[in-house]
Each structure stands twice: as structure tokens, then as C-alpha cells.
UniProtKB/TrEMBL annotation:
Protein name as annotated: Metalloprotease
Organism expressing this protein natively: Mycobacterium avium
Comp. bias intervals (Pro residues): 9-24
Matches recorded under InterPro entries: Uncharacterised_pept_Zn_put
Compositionally biased intervals (Basic and acidic residues): 266-276
Chain intervals with Low complexity compositional bias: 25-42, 95-124
Keyword vocabulary terms for this entry: Membrane, Transmembrane, Transmembrane helix
Amino acid sequence: MPAQGYAPRPGPPPRPYPPYPGPPAHAGRTPGYVAPPNIAGPGPYPPAATPQRRSSGAQIALAAVLVVALGVIGVAIASPESIRSALPGADTVATTTTRTTSVAASTTRTTTSSAASTTRTTTSPSVQPVPTGEQALSGNPILQAGGMAKQVCGPPGYPNDGPAGEAFYAAALPCVERAWQPLFERARMEYDTPKVMVPAGTVATSPCGTVSTEEAAAFYCSSNETIYMPIAGLPESWTEGRPLNYLSVFAHEFGHHVQGLTGTLDEGHRRERRTGGDTPAGLELNRRMELQVQCFAGMFVESIVDTGGPFTRPDIDSVRRFEYGSGNDSPTHGAAANVEGWWVRGIRNQIADCNTWSAPSSEVA
């Protein structure tokens, strides 16, 4: 099956932007960004991965954006407190982290590996099981969780090389988690922290497959719950070195992690397999998944502007232009107008507005 990705279209859109709303008074395809036309054409989509997570899915969320760079350098962000180097030959340091997730009778799960030992404690009145069927899509409890709280988020610099990328995404991850964790608590759903890899070369290897920067600029692999943000995937010629553009892409990929935790990826890909991934119905299902995380990205961006940090309301316009350029009338991700349009819905900062599963086909074309 082909990968899911953005097809950036540089330059201003062929129509004026509508006014943006202010804040309120797998064995499936791989979601991701595709190479900007004037830098490198969209690469071939990678094959589907074998399902492995939660009894169904090593789904890989893939965003192919561009081509550049050499070698492979990465960093795995195991938690906001623990960063594990993935450079060849680098030592790994055992760390212990305690996370409190969602609101229950208290249960504790301990996971141990050679790299990290993590204890996750769940304390909630009633953590819901991961939904299936329509309850994982249009009826998902996460869609009733309201909006994200405002917060200051200002990662250092921007990810233009390996060390800068490591520092940037290590600082970005806790921001995105702070935005999402209260929504999981309100929905009574279990949350856990994804890992983040920042490859600086042309190839990223994951349990979901080996992906080059010709194929993917950013992607999510559900089998190891890891977001991959290759340095070469987001060139300055496209992002203009604007930190908020990088954060919007990161929030998009984090959105696939949210879909994985809440059953949406598994159910969406089950339906895709039934209908055929390359059929009109299968492609529409894929667009619904991708456009939903566009909306999630808009929510996060809205939550960090005008908070006393580095980002203010005018920065929204540059990100909207960037997001419009991410749409290239892709059959897997949607028309440019819809790619931008669902991001704009997100800046209303109400997750119920991100219910692509109930939207008419014209809004996810």
C-alpha cells in the first residue's frame, strides 16, 4: 500500500485565506509529508507494514517532504526527562521515569529494556478500554474532551542539524504532552509518552520499515510508538526556518500517536483493508485520518500563541501558508484547500471540530 503524505506546494495559495477564527470567548498506509515540487518530487510510497500494536497494527504514519543529507543520526526521546542517543556506537544509559496517566483503581505497569526502565502508573476512577468500530472513529470519547489549555512553549532555535534537532524536539515533546494529557484524562483514556527519533541522514530505519527522505519527511511508527522527524525532511527552503512550522508538523505526527492510543488508527486501517486501500473508498478513509491530525496540529498551534512566549497571533498566518503548501491535491491527504481548512478548524481549539469521520465526502476530498 502507498504511504500517506503531504505534497507541499510552495508559494502563496491561488485564493485569499478566509478569516481565521480566534480562540473561543497500520497495516495501513504511512501518514506523512511529501517532497516539495521544486526540491524533489514525491517519492514512491513504502509498502504496508504488518500489524503489531494492540492486536492490530504496526501502522506507520508517514509524511514525505524532501530529499537531502547523508548518514543516519538520531535521538530517541523516551520521555521529557530522558533522552537516549541513537548515534552509531553511542552508549545507552538506563533511566527510570514515573508517569501518571489518565485518571482508577490504581494500577502499575513496569516495562524494562536495556535502554530504559519505565514505571507507568494509572490512577483513574475508570479508564475506558480502547474503543473499536464506529466508537473508535466518529464516536471516539477523545472527541468529547474539549480544548487545549494555553501554555508557553518555546523550543530553542530550530532543527537545522542533528544537535539542534535533538534539542528542539526534546523541548517540544513535553509541550505537546501538556496539551494532550488533560484531554486523555477528561476522556478517561490511557495515555503514554511516544519516543522521538531525529535522523539527520537520508534513511530512517524503524520496525515499520526503512524509509528514506525521498519517501518521507516525518512519520509515525505505531509498533514502537515512535515519531521520526528527519532533519533532511524539512528544508529551510520550505519551512523558512520558522520554528512554528516545525512544531505544526511535529504536532501532526503526534496526532497519529493520539489516533494510535485511542483506537482510530487500528479501526481506520481495518476498514481500509476491507475496502482496498487504493479504491476511492479506501483513499477517503485515509484522508479522514490525515485531515483529522491536521486539525489536531491546528489545536496545538493555537494553544501556544499569545501566551507570553515567542509565538504571537501574526505567526498563525505564516503557518497557514505553510500548511496550504503542504496540500497538493493528494489522493491520500486531500486537496490543498482541505489540508489547510482542517488545520484552520483546529485553531478554534475544540476537538469536537476535528471529527472528520462525520464530515461529508466533499470536506475530505
